[in-house]
Amino acid sequence: MIILGINAYHADSSAAIFRDGVLIAATEEERFRRVKHWAGFPSLAVEFCLKEAGVTLHEVDHIAIGRDPYAKLARKIFFLLKNPRGGVRAVRDRLSNAKKVASLEDEFKKLDPSIDEKSFRSRIHQVEHHRSHLASAFFASPFDESAILSIDGSGDFTTTMTATGKGNQMQVLDSVDFPHSVGLFYTAFTQLLGFPHYGDEYKVMGLAPYGEPKYVDELKDVLIFDANGLFHLNQKYFRSAKSGIISYGEDHIPVVAPLYSSYMTEKFGDTRSKEEPLNQYHKDLGASVQRITELLIFHILNALQKKTGLKNICIAGGVAQNSVANGKLTRNTGFENIYIPSAGHDAGISMGCALFVYNQVLKQPRQLPVYSAFTGSRFSNEEIEIYLKSRDIVYTRYPESEIYEIIAERLINSGVVGWFNGRAEFGPRALGARSIVADPRRADAKDLLNSKIKRRESFRPFAPSILKEYVSEYFEINDDVPFMEKVFPIRKEKQALIPAVTHVDGTGRLQSVDRNTAPRYYQLIETFRQKTGIPILLNTSFNENEPIVNSPEHALECFLRTSMDMLVLENCVITRNA
Question: Does residue 469 have a pLDDT over 60?
């Protein structure tokens, strides 16, 4: 049975394909289009998935889309009637989305004109946004029974949803409706702090350790915890709850409208301009926003744990990308075991809606848990060599027995290396397939990377990739973290050994590298360990203010326009002096 899932007409559009419940391929459209958070129909991602599965559209049994414009229709209508001034745009946007979702067969017909639209339509399933998130976490997890949380900005008029899962079925327990959203709360303050672009919230998470959470009490008037374990927003602080939140132009780039009201600026200060340096107030406000968000997540999860009595929790949604909060969950809630997918954000909806159809709708048995994010594009050495020769690029193809020594030596000698290996990751984080790596022992590595490649804010940390067997030796908490989804304290006696990946508060957003899941990346780190005694590499995404590189061409172009020292494309190595 072949099931194709898509996230379409929404930020981070993507596609995923399953055969008999086993994930074959999954990827974001932005990797092909080279436009961050691309939000149209994922035609290139769909074509890639079909090719990887070796099937045509005629052979796809079911197609799932993680959108249901008619979900909570009565509540939407009530909201629009209650807010007539801002309702026109909201109605227009929702009608436009409904029309697009209702005519999906038109998009697929562009890919294959031979399909019969009427019969094709019968294969399409509309799965509500948050149920897709829930499914992406629970049905991919190792747990037979678990509590589940989906929490993000907004989707299909819901912002938060709780559920339980057992076997191949989930049961929704409760939800929070738009405009009450912790995601939009975090975004509003992200904008106030001078980071206006879609997806900038991670910058506040990186800024927070430089401040003190002095304003949590004041923020409790903005984000209000309810006795039932949920929450609501004080609408005086927000202005776009009555109008469109995200708009998409013809370029399919998501643009977030300003969310904060004049009342918020009156209470928390004017918006920081792009030229204005970050002062201590900005840092303290960022720390306070991060802290109250953590407290709210604990509040929701503790109530959910008491309600269900379960010890396992699966989490997805944009807020589930808050790795700082994720690293504190077992210490601050009654849950003991956590699963968060590699694409917990909206790209993961393609995977989730397909799993929802396979397990929840068709009642098929669950398959093995998903611990690998490597489901994207791949290229052979032969394909890479053909491309490099077409560009007249000087390179050396090393045998497997020699290449790790070559790269490790370059890293030890102050090198910054672009590492392009195997299938690309599904999700927003580089996990050793499309990574830039460096020596974590260098105190100046952050400045080195920012001057050579990244050119990003100095307060943003770089992450450590650590061999799975050594996590307890370097981190205070020993846990499998395959998708770089948690931040843990680094042991004090180890912090001076790895200053490049130790954040200002003594923490690190680790990725535990498993030999079986990422054998070549594991071997690279192991070779570095044998030479230095350190089982860690600094790992950051292979890009420069663009989507993570997807092909040898993207990797080479990034290498050529930056000051990277070495580019490794599978076994083909290009050095700067060459």
Answer: yes
Does any domain span residue 366?
Answer: no
The continuous run of DSSP H or E covering 385 comes out as helix 381-390
**What is the rounded CA–CA span in Å between residue 367 and residue 449?**
41
Give the span between the Cα atoms of 304 and 228, in whole angstroms.
10
Q: What is the dihedral of CA 550, 553, 555, 557, to 10 degrees?
A: -130
Same domain, 525 and 550: yes
pLDDT (0 to 100) of residue 303: 98
pLDDT band at 117 (very low <50, low <70, confident <90, very high): confident
374 within some domain: no
pTM value is: 0.95
Q: Would you state the structure tokens that stand for residue 328, as one six-digit string?
A: 């504190």
Same domain, yes or no, for 173 and 317?
yes
**565 and 471 belong to one structural domain:** yes
- Residue found under tokens 């931040």: 487
Q: Examine residue 375 and state whether it is found in any structural domain, yes or no.
A: no
Write down the pLDDT at residue 274. 87
545 has which bridge partners?
Answer: none
Indicate which CATH number applies to the domain containing 494.
3.90.870.20
Tally of domains within the chain: 3
Q: What are phi and psi of 404, to 5 degrees?
A: -65, -35
* pLDDT surpassing 70 at residue 92: no
CA distance 380 to 245: 43
Residue 120 maps to which CATH number?
3.30.420
For helices 182-192 and 280-308, give the axis angle rounded to 10 degrees. 170
Distance CA 164, CA 171 (A): 5
Whole-number Å distance between alpha carbons of 388 and 394 = 8
N- to C-terminal Cα distance for the chain? 50
Q: Are residues 272 and 223 in the same domain?
A: yes
Do 553 and 568 touch, CB atoms closer than 8 A?
A: no
Structural domain that includes position 395: 381-575
Give helix then strand counts, H and E, for the chain: 22, 23
Q: pLDDT over 70 for what percent of the chain?
A: 93
* CA distances (Å), origin 270, targets 191, 255, 277, 304: 10, 21, 14, 37
Determine, yes or no, domain membership for 146: no
φ and ψ of 34, to 5 deg: 65, 35
